[in-house]
Amino acid sequence: MDSKLHDDLIKDLSSMINDSEDYNVIIQVGENHNTKEFRIHSNILRARSPYFRKQLSAKWGSNNHSKFKRDHITVFKKSHISPNVFEIILKYIYTGEADFYKKSGRDIFEVLVTSNEFLLEKLYNCVQDHLIEKQSIWIKQNFNYVFYTVFKLVNCKKMQDYCIECMSEDSQLFNEKNFSFLDKDNLYDLLKRENLQIEEIVIWEYLIKWGIEQTPGLRNKGNDRDKWNDHDYEALKETISQFIPLIRFVEISPADFFDRVRPYKDVIPFHIYEEVAEFYYKNTMSKTTILPPRTGKFKIESNIIKPKLANIIASWIEKKDENNLPLKDKYSFDLLYCGSKDGFNPKSFRVKCNHQGPCLVLVKKKSTKIYGGYNPIGFTNTYRRYCPTNDSFIFSFENSEDTQNMKISRVNSKHTNRAIYEHRINGFNFGNAFYMKGDCVFFNNSGIYDNVDNVLDLNTSPIPEEIEVLKISLL
């Protein structure tokens, strides 16, 4: 059979979209100033869409304001669907083709929602594949909107799985609200993943809050354990019992275990709690119920910043957008120097940090704000010498959880030969803009780094609360 016959069929059907002759259905879409009216043939709608087959065959309800008759024409009002989206849907209904060329991520996503409403199964599956393969950046930039929508859609398994994968790989997408939105099956799928990029104690606390919300009788009491009785603990234990074995207790610090896990010991099966306690007392790994640490998890040895901030810094190192972060298992951040432990003086700094390769300097003063600098060439203790590099930068975060108001200042392209200054009286020195001298840390607008005034608080006290230096290595 000549394939051109099929092409001619599609061409002829496509021409009917703009041909108003013999139409008997009108679909009005959009709202406000963005509206459009489409004239359609009911036989096409019935043949292609189970939704319209039912709607066009059903008896008319007297209170149905979205569907009515006008001069023997059936009219549907779909104000929640934009004209751009409906044009894609209509072309698919008439021709079986879906054209996403030069369409925005939002329009394509709305095609997914609308194809679910109209029960267009093949288009529904096709759009899921396209979004995952071609619109991953848009999904991450609009993650909350996508997340809450796909978990309300029937049979949207591909997109749901993709959202869970994104959450497991990107700690910025993993938050309490998203966690609480998951049902049991999706939550189990998330917690069993080896590559979850979030602190285990946070996972534990989210699980407890999720369990409270899912347990009748506990929702009104919330996390106020003074109001709980033995029945409440038993009820919560039953709600989260299948998830407890998935928690990697070995990744929770002894202090966090004592303060944040132990108060809920009654919801943990006795044999698991005993083995966890033995691990903390004896540092011996259980051979039965306690799972080992998650593999490929983003590790950072710091008390100043959290992994999600380290991941943003990693994106700056690679000169990528913060919304397109590198893989979490690409770098290790190993602690070389800690001022409160090793001493706030350049000598101790140099003993720990010289000749260690690329380093990250972190400074916390007597506030929540965090300052830092990236030295890609490492510290050498060369006497009174400027060292050139194009890749150094200084930065600040408002606090250890801040992922919105961070600021970065890269070395000025005209002064890359003065990016790092080596002198024995300094611990670190980023072009005399950000440096350690004696037991103090100073800020200065030296002109070597751009927009320093926006990154560093030039009038702040020079006395640091903590200084850390982390060695950055590729894994």
From TrEMBL:
Record-annotated TLDc domain positions: 303-473
InterPro entries per record: BTB-POZ/Galectin-3-binding, BTB/POZ_dom, SKP1/BTB/POZ_sf, TLDc_dom
Pfam families: BTB (PF00651), TLD (PF07534)
Domain BTB: 23-102
SUPFAM superfamilies attached to this UniProt entry: POZ domain (SSF54695)
SMART domains recorded: BTB (SM00225)
Protein name: BTB domain-containing protein
Organism: Rhizophagus clarus
Taxonomic lineage: Eukaryota, Fungi, Fungi incertae sedis, Mucoromycota, Glomeromycotina
